[in-house]
Specification:
Largest sheet: 2 strands, antiparallel
Distance between the termini: 85 Å
Radius of gyration: 44 Å
Number of helices: 20
Length: 573
């Protein structure tokens, strides 16, 4: 029952395409020829165009008078027309995809629907060939098989995709059998195979969709830029209203062909309109072309700027890769998987573009016009390479861990600043005969000097260095070599505030001074408080310049700072 219903639905889809072809042909027969043409010729035209839309070539033979009227040499011509009007093909493809999705809801029994639809469409193709008798160089079995396979392949693809999305039982069983086969062959990570295969197909479909979308924008821009040339070609034909309408419909069904040519042009492979011609982003070489206004939109070469066209596809791949990197299957996967998935996806997209290029190529006239369209393998290969570069860059950018970079950035900046500061301090470094004191020993000397050094030692009696510097002042250098601090040594204490150099030079010659010194031993001296203040300031300065040094002595439990949110372990006082 499912197969019978599918066959009827396929016949209806074929009839929809036939009606789309028959309406303009019958209108031309009635209005232009006033029913003067033979009905057999009209039927042959309808059937031939429908079969041509499903990749069945047609044969034509022109008399010398007809060839002269078409602008050719006055001699008989015979040629094959094989460029398919993909606008009519699109109708069949959409109806076949709709039928395949519907059959997938019936589970495994839906496969009978795909088979029945293929047989039904083949039956219609045979009926069209028998009724209209179009002139074709192919045998009957090829005329029936090629349209049937075209419908059946689209329906089967839609059926499989819908079953995978819905998680049909037969699809899950097929995946399990495939996993067991991979395990038998020794493959690794077979459990993740379904998710990664689905992600690969999603990336391939997204890359193909982005490529086709960019090609559509490029085609629209070419039509806008080439509009004056298109109008000039249209006016040169001098058609009436009906002729203009039919010309518009003819170009409308060829619009998908122009879209695929634009995609091949963006890849850099370009396309040909006749033997020996080429239209690429780098240069355009065209000979005589058919008088069709659509060819007025063929762009001129950009020269050195032609590399911008493939760069657009690379940028599209980068966007798809960034979106795909957010998927958990790719974000948590190792880098080997993160590289393999985009490469396979770009290869699948390239194969699809190669297939579309093959479907949009063929013969559209005699002699040199027998070769038109894009080279499938060149266009598909370049598209795969460009999309692979974009996908890899996008996945790498989306998968990179920027938190580590943000954490490592301040350390790198601080290290660079320390290197620069060390280089500058090397120019003003102290002499080799000056003493370098570690911080721990420096603290010990400061404590000893503050407790045992006399407060009233005259500074005037202290020796001076050769260059005028005070030898009692030493430089404490951080062990890391970052900062130097001048501190007073224990042998030469710092001058007290308010004590002039002249007064210090007189020493103990004034008895009143000795009396004041004796009295200061009995009463608290304000200089002690000032010395303690200076000592605390020195300690604070040393701590500020030794922020990256560990403490010399371990802290006790009581001295350990308490932080917010910290709790001491139980059992501690």
């Amino acid at each position: 029952m499912t197969a019978a219903i599918a066959a009827i639905e396929a016949a209806a889809a074929a009839l929809a395409g036939l009606v789309a072809v028959a309406i303009p042909v019958l209108l031309l027969w009635v209005v232009t020829f006033d029913l003067a043409a033979e009905p057999e010729v009209v039927l042959a035209s309808i059937g031939g165009v429908w079969l041509l839309a499903h990749w069945v070539p047609l044969s034509f033979a022109l008399s010398p008078e007809t060839a002269l009227a078409l602008g050719q040499a006055p001699e008989g011509l015979s040629f094959t027309l094989s460029l398919a009007p993909l606008g009519i093909t699109l109708i069949t493809a959409l109806l076949a995809a709709r039928a395949g999705r519907r059959f997938a809801r019936r589970g495994g029994a839906g496969a009978a629907g795909v088979l029945g639809g293929t047989l039904g469409f083949g039956a219609v193709a045979f009926s069209v060939w028998a009724a209209t008798s179009p002139s074709t160089p192919w045998p009957v079995w090829a005329v029936v098989l090629v349209p049937a396979l075209g419908y059946g392949s689209v329906a089967a693809a839609a059926f499989a995709v819908a079953a995978a999305i819905d998680g049909q039982a037969w699809w899950a069983g097929a995946l399990r059998r495939a996993q067991r086969g991979m395990e038998y062959l020794g493959a690794r990570a077979t459990a993740a195979f379904p998710a990664r295969a689905a992600l690969t197909l999603r990336l391939a479909a997204a890359a193909l969709a982005v490529s086709v979308g960019v090609a559509a924008l490029a085609l629209a821009a070419a039509l806008i830029v080439g509009y004056p040339q298109i109008m000039a070609l249209t006016q040169s034909l001098q058609l009436d209203a009906l002729g203009s309408t039919l010309l518009f419909l003819a170009q409308l069904v060829l619009l998908p062909v122009a879209l695929i040519w634009a995609l091949a042009w963006l890849t850099g492979a370009g396309f040909a309109v006749g033997a020996g011609s080429s239209a690429t982003p780098f240069e355009t070489l065209l000979g005589p072309v058919p008088t069709m206004p659509l060819f007025g939109a063929v762009p001129q070469g950009w020269g050195a700027l032609g590399a911008l066209a493939p760069a657009i596809l690379v940028l599209g791949g980068v966007g798809v890769g960034l979106l795909g990197a957010r998927r958990p299957e790719l974000r948590r996967a190792p880098w080997s998987v993160a590289v393999a998935v985009p490469v396979v996806a770009s290869a699948l997209a390239g194969l699809a573009i190669a297939g579309l290029s093959a479907l949009s190529s063929g013969s559209m006239g005699p002699e040199r016009l027998a070769e038109t369209g894009a080279d499938p393998w060149r266009a598909g290969g370049l598209a795969a390479a460009e999309l692979a570069v974009g996908l890899l860059l996008g996945v790498a950018a989306g998968k990179a861990d920027y938190s580590r970079l943000r954490v490592a950035l301040p350390d790198g900046v601080a290290s660079a600043r320390r290197r620069l500061r060390g280089g500058r301090s090397a120019e003003t470094a102290p002499a080799d005969d000056q003493e370098t004191i570690p911080l721990d020993e420096l603290r010990a000397r400061l404590r000893a000097s503050s407790s045992s050094a006399p407060r009233d030692t005259p500074v005037g009696d202290a020796p001076r260095s050769v260059d005028g510097e005070d030898p009692g002042v030493r430089e404490a250098e951080d062990p890391a070599g970052r900062e130097t601090v001048e501190i007073p040594s224990a042998e030469h204490p710092q001058r007290r505030a308010g004590e002039s150099e002249g007064e210090a030079g007189r020493g103990d010659e004034d008895p009143r001074r000795r009396a004041a010194g004796t009295a200061s031993a009995e009463a608290p001296d304000p200089a002690d408080e000032e010395s303690e203040t200076e000592e605390s300031e020195t300690e604070a300065l040393l701590r500020a310049y030794s922020w990256d040094q560990p403490d010399a002595e371990p802290r006790s439990e009581e001295d350990r700072p308490r932080r917010s949110g910290w709790r001491w372990p139980r059992g501690k006082d």
